[in-house]
Amino acid sequence: MIGFKRMNIPNRLTTLRMLCVVLLLIVAFFPYDALSMDVPTWTLFGKPFSLIRLILLILFAFGSFTDFLDGYLARKHNLVTTFGKFMDPIADKLLVNLSFLVLASWGEFSMIVPIIFVARDTIVDAIRLIAVQRQIVIAASPLGKAKTVTQMVALVLLLLHIPYAVILIYLAALVSLLSGADYFWKNRHIVLEGAFQDE
């Protein structure tokens, strides 16, 4: 806790978001049945709504809020740090992608959806890494922002059992594919450099 207290507020929020990721995995995959633990369950929109699902919703909503707040505070008060630039995107992607993996493991939609998200993020991060090495700044694209918004809205609606929310999940996967293709195409000159030998 000593190290946590020495952090600035944006970095504390990022750290809390990482904690949300850990708690999310523990809550989702804790062996309740093996320990004969009864989980309170209600009905929402005609479907079972368990305490586990409620906790996951709270953790995801809180983590998403800290994502917005830490970036806002860091920029407003000039508190941008190397730790923040390193940990913030990692915490963001883990929170979202692991939430999708949890729900896919529960059979609520195809596992191909989180695979698409992880693959897209990996490709985009690799392109950004190459760009940074070349001191090239790649601005966030509208498709990238649309991907993030559709992912977060889709997750919240699905956790709440909103009817047909799964459609938005597949829409988010489509936007993610388009976003990854857009990043690659716009920066293909960086990625493909040296790929072909001159004849």
Give the gist of this structure.
With 199 residues, this protein is mainly alpha-helical.
Structure description:
- This protein is mainly alpha-helical and 199 residues long.
- It folds into 2 domains: 1-91; 109-192, no CATH class.
- It is built from 8 helices and 2 strands; from the N terminus they run ααββαααααα.
- It is globular.
- The mean pLDDT is 90.
- Kindly state the number of beta strands: 2
Oligomeric state of the chains present here: single chain
Q: How much helicity do the residues have?
A: over 70%
Series of H and E elements: HHEEHHHHHH
Major beta-sheet overview:
2 strands, antiparallel
Spatial separation of the terminal alpha carbons: 61 Å
Shape: globular
Describe how the helices and strands are arranged.
Blueprint: H1 2-6, H2 9-29, E1 41-44, E2 47-50, H3 51-76, H4 82-105, H5 112-133, H6 142-159, H7 165-186, H8 188-191
Antiparallel strand pairs: 1-2
Helix pairs in contact: 2-3, 2-4, 3-4, 4-5, 5-7, 6-7
Characteristics of this structure?
2 strands, 199 residues, two-stranded antiparallel ribbon, mainly alpha
